[in-house]
Amino acid sequence: MIIDTTEVQDINSFSRLESLKEVYGIIWILVPILTLVLGITIGVLVIVWLEREISAGIQQRIGPEYAGPLGVLQALADGTKLLFKENLIPSRGDIRLFSIGPSISVISILVSYSVIPFGYNFVLADLNIGVFLWIAISSIAPIGLLMSGYGSNNKYSFLGGLRAAAQSISYEIPLTLCVLSISLLSNSLSTVDIVDAQSKYGFLGWNLWRQPIGFIIFLISSLAECERLPFDLPEAEEELVAGYQTEYSGIKFGLFYVASYLNLLVSSLFVTVLYLGGWNICIPYIFVSELFEINKTCGVFGITIGIFITLAKTYLFLFLSITTRWTLPRLRMDQLLNLGWKFLLPISLGNLLLTTSFRLFSL
């Protein structure tokens, strides 16, 4: 049997072409993910710089000013310092739990960004259960904190992990009920559909006006989920020996702070998506309809405008969160649990029942 060499060359070239297509396909899958991670990293650095500048202004201090112009590189300098510091491990602790805990906290929050729409058709994964996926994944983060406290073989760390788990359970339920009310109003669990349902009447169509009680409960619950003042009992270093972070140092210690700021950013983005109309312009559609067509017809320019509007609304909420941290005192643990179980849970449940009744009577 004689095999033509040209046929062999054609087969080889075809196989190489197919392999190149597979490589290009993998690259095109990784590009959006890497772009999102880069944007999130820059966003966290901006939040750290803003918090230091705002807190300095509230306390009449100067704030960071030496690391880069206006101190914009201070967060990067702190991260570099933590990266090169010695990484200590407790001699009698569980090394696996001690090492895995910070990673679980960061990864579980990073996955939540995949369902957030930053603009029209600019979302990594438009899922039918987008908001519930965020709630389910964010519930994994306290497990990492509990593992960290238990693996440290330190009673203060273990109590800090237990406080984090108790706080998360207390405020996860009211937050979920608020999200369920929004999904009933929008007839969807997709984040993109929720934003589209608010788009017709500009700021008048925002869920903020249709769900004011749910909005307030969502703000309080999201601050508790992020362990921000006045709800930072799991890591109150002034009074509780830093909680689950007591035995950590170096980059693992820094991962907890990265997870905290990542969680704050994702909560702010979901406030924008669920209650503030997402990427939509605030002007009602009936007045300036041409502006609403920019996102759909102008390609990159429209997506850029959508991203800018989304981030503007997000950083407005971040400003409120940072101001709250440097204004209100810390709650006691019993006050924190009473607020979650005795007040927010019944009110959020009543809000859900009212929303359900409204939807049934409107059919």
Automatic annotation (TrEMBL):
<dbReference type="Pfam" id="PF00146">
    <property type="entry name" value="NADHdh"/>
</dbReference>
<dbReference type="GO" id="GO:0048038">
    <property type="term" value="F:quinone binding"/>
</dbReference>
<feature type="transmembrane region" description="Helical">
    <location>
        <begin position="26"/>
        <end position="50"/>
    </location>
</feature>
<comment type="subunit">
    <text>NDH is composed of at least 16 different subunits, 5 of which are encoded in the nucleus.</text>
</comment>
<keyword id="KW-0793">Thylakoid</keyword>
<keyword id="KW-0472">Membrane</keyword>
<keyword id="KW-0874">Quinone</keyword>
<dbReference type="InterPro" id="IPR001694">
    <property type="entry name" value="NADH_UbQ_OxRdtase_su1/FPO"/>
</dbReference>
<dbReference type="GO" id="GO:0019684">
    <property type="term" value="P:photosynthesis, light reaction"/>
</dbReference>
<keyword id="KW-0520">NAD</keyword>
<keyword id="KW-1278">Translocase</keyword>
<keyword id="KW-0618">Plastoquinone</keyword>
<feature type="transmembrane region" description="Helical">
    <location>
        <begin position="299"/>
        <end position="322"/>
    </location>
</feature>
<keyword id="KW-1133">Transmembrane helix</keyword>
<keyword id="KW-0150">Chloroplast</keyword>
<feature type="transmembrane region" description="Helical">
    <location>
        <begin position="128"/>
        <end position="148"/>
    </location>
</feature>
<dbReference type="GO" id="GO:0016655">
    <property type="term" value="F:oxidoreductase activity, acting on NAD(P)H, quinone or similar compound as acceptor"/>
</dbReference>
<dbReference type="GO" id="GO:0009535">
    <property type="term" value="C:chloroplast thylakoid membrane"/>
</dbReference>
<feature type="transmembrane region" description="Helical">
    <location>
        <begin position="261"/>
        <end position="287"/>
    </location>
</feature>
<comment type="similarity">
    <text>Belongs to the complex I subunit 1 family.</text>
</comment>
<feature type="transmembrane region" description="Helical">
    <location>
        <begin position="343"/>
        <end position="361"/>
    </location>
</feature>
<keyword id="KW-0812">Transmembrane</keyword>
<dbReference type="GO" id="GO:0005886">
    <property type="term" value="C:plasma membrane"/>
</dbReference>
<comment type="function">
    <text>NDH shuttles electrons from NAD(P)H:plastoquinone, via FMN and iron-sulfur (Fe-S) centers, to quinones in the photosynthetic chain and possibly in a chloroplast respiratory chain. The immediate electron acceptor for the enzyme in this species is believed to be plastoquinone. Couples the redox reaction to proton translocation, and thus conserves the redox energy in a proton gradient.</text>
</comment>
<keyword id="KW-0934">Plastid</keyword>
<feature type="transmembrane region" description="Helical">
    <location>
        <begin position="95"/>
        <end position="116"/>
    </location>
</feature>
<dbReference type="InterPro" id="IPR018086">
    <property type="entry name" value="NADH_UbQ_OxRdtase_su1_CS"/>
</dbReference>
<dbReference type="GO" id="GO:0003954">
    <property type="term" value="F:NADH dehydrogenase activity"/>
</dbReference>
<protein>
    <recommendedName>
        <fullName>NAD(P)H-quinone oxidoreductase subunit 1, chloroplastic</fullName>
        <ecNumber>7.1.1.-</ecNumber>
    </recommendedName>
</protein>
<keyword id="KW-0521">NADP</keyword>
<dbReference type="GO" id="GO:0009060">
    <property type="term" value="P:aerobic respiration"/>
</dbReference>
